[in-house]
Amino acid sequence: MDLVRTATAAGVTTVTLDSPANRNALSTPLMTELLDALATAVTDPDVRVVVLSHTGPVFCSGADLKETAAARESGRVPAELLADVLAALWEFPKPVVCRVGGPARAGGLGLIAAADLAVCTREATFAFSEVRLGVIPAVISATVLPRLTPRAAAELYLTGDVFDGARAAEIGLVTAAVPAEGLDATVAAYCDALVKGGPLALAGAKELLRRAPGPSIRADLADLSERSGTYFRSAEGVEGVTAFREKRPPSWIPPGRAL
């Protein structure tokens, strides 16, 4: 049985965690299927945006603890595969939007933080529950800590306390927390905006967001000026400027999407 499902429409591929029986826990089979789905989406030119969603009331409960306990003898626990998943999401060249319609714990928060945008319901709950199990949120720190304010990170990492969607938005874990009835409309609105960007420009903008500062402001400006010129001179840049002047949609907007 598939644990991850995909569906594509009008430039948006929805990748759905579909293992509600164990609260979409991060088992080796689920993470392997998720990596396969992302690898397929990255090479498909029809995929402009990926939405990471879920079935059942829980977004993701974190590591599959039953599998982890059984695998201790092997020397490689399933949670270690999570590093590959987080890297794939973080480095994904197309926008990734996380749709969170229910609770997330531990490793599930790493998935949320790895996405470019994340929308949750106000009622959704979150917790870095690792310390209460005698372990630490090590792997997910690569994606989580760049998102959180330092004081919030210290509080929530050390206490393991549960917090709600509003707090998640306040500290930067998610982009927005909305009423449950508005979750899908908010995600759709973000997707509608994202597919209007040029594919290469979106990838370049993501690189800017991950870019480390240079040794000086002049070095930074030299690098950024060169990048800017490259995009203005590119075929995509020429098409975008021409389409704007001619008051028409650029060629990259998928069928079924309005300007």
Automatic annotation (TrEMBL):
Pfam families with a match to the protein in the record: ECH_1
Residues annotated as signal peptide: none
Stated family: Belongs to the enoyl-CoA hydratase/isomerase family.
Protein name, entry field: Enoyl-CoA hydratase-related protein
Organism name: Paractinoplanes globisporus
